[in-house]
Amino acid sequence: MAEKKLVISDFDMTLTRFAYQGKRVPTTHSCLFIFAVLLQMKELLNRYYPIEIDANLSPEEKLPYMVEWWTKVHELLIQQRIRKDMLAHAVRESSAMLREGYRVFFDCLAEQRVPLLIFSAGVGDVLEEVIRQNDVFHPNVHIISNYMDFDHVEDRKESYMNSFDIVLVKDETMDVPNIGYQSEKQS
Ligand SMILES: Nc1ccn([C@@H]2O[C@H](COP(=O)(O)O)[C@@H](O)[C@H]2O)c(=O)n1
C-alpha cells in the first residue's frame, strides 16, 4: 500500500523568517500595524512576546497572558473597521517574508500532492494573503487559523454609494420607498 504523506507546520517565524537584514520580520498580526493602531499593538507585542518565549514559564502559566494579548489586539483591530480589501495592501506594504527556499518547499509538496496543513495562532486572512502574494497558494495548502469576521455592508458601502442615489444602512423601514411613492402620487 502506498505511504500517505502529510506536512504540518505553524506559520509565523516557521514558514516566515524571524528577521531579515537585522530587522524583525512582521508576524501576521504585525502586518496590520499599518492601520493606525501601530503604537498600541507594538506596545502589546513588546509586553507579551517575552512572556510567550519565556522558558521559565509553563504553558499553563503563559496561557492567560496569551489570551489577554489576543483579546486586546483583536479589540483594537475591530475599532479600526478594517475592510477585507485593505488586507492585500497592508501585506504588500509590510516586510512580511517567507523563508529563503520557500518556493522549492511549497512547489515540491504541490507537485507531489502532499497536503500542507498550516496551523497558526496568527490572522488567517493575512496569512493567506502572504502566501498568495508569493504565488505559492497551491491547492494542497490548507490553513487552520483565526479569520476576521467582516461587516460586508461596511465593506461594500463605498461602491454602493458610487453606484446608487440612495444607500440605506440599518434602515428596517419602508420610509424611503413610501416617501418616493407619495411624492409620485402627488405630482
Ligand atoms: N497579537 C498577537 C498575537 C500573536 N502574535 C504572534 O503570532 C505568532 C503566531 O504564530 P504561529 O506559529 O501560530 O503562526 C505567535 O507566536 C505570536 O508571537 C502577534 O504577533 N501578535
TrEMBL record:
<dbReference type="InterPro" id="IPR023214">
    <property type="entry name" value="HAD_sf"/>
</dbReference>
<comment type="function">
    <text>Specifically hydrolyzes 7-methylguanosine monophosphate (m(7)GMP) to 7-methylguanosine and inorganic phosphate. The specific activity for m(7)GMP may protect cells against undesired salvage of m(7)GMP and its incorporation into nucleic acids. Also has weak activity for CMP. UMP and purine nucleotides are poor substrates.</text>
</comment>
<protein>
    <submittedName>
        <fullName>5'-nucleotidase, cytosolic IIIB</fullName>
    </submittedName>
</protein>
<dbReference type="InterPro" id="IPR006434">
    <property type="entry name" value="Pyrimidine_nucleotidase_eu"/>
</dbReference>
<keyword id="KW-0460">Magnesium</keyword>
<dbReference type="InterPro" id="IPR036412">
    <property type="entry name" value="HAD-like_sf"/>
</dbReference>
<dbReference type="Pfam" id="PF05822">
    <property type="entry name" value="UMPH-1"/>
</dbReference>
<keyword id="KW-0378">Hydrolase</keyword>
<dbReference type="GO" id="GO:0000166">
    <property type="term" value="F:nucleotide binding"/>
</dbReference>
<dbReference type="GO" id="GO:0000287">
    <property type="term" value="F:magnesium ion binding"/>
</dbReference>
<dbReference type="GO" id="GO:0008253">
    <property type="term" value="F:5'-nucleotidase activity"/>
</dbReference>
<keyword id="KW-0479">Metal-binding</keyword>
<comment type="subunit">
    <text>Monomer.</text>
</comment>
<keyword id="KW-0546">Nucleotide metabolism</keyword>
<keyword id="KW-0547">Nucleotide-binding</keyword>
<dbReference type="GO" id="GO:0009117">
    <property type="term" value="P:nucleotide metabolic process"/>
</dbReference>
<keyword id="KW-0963">Cytoplasm</keyword>
<dbReference type="GO" id="GO:0005737">
    <property type="term" value="C:cytoplasm"/>
</dbReference>
<comment type="similarity">
    <text>Belongs to the pyrimidine 5'-nucleotidase family.</text>
</comment>
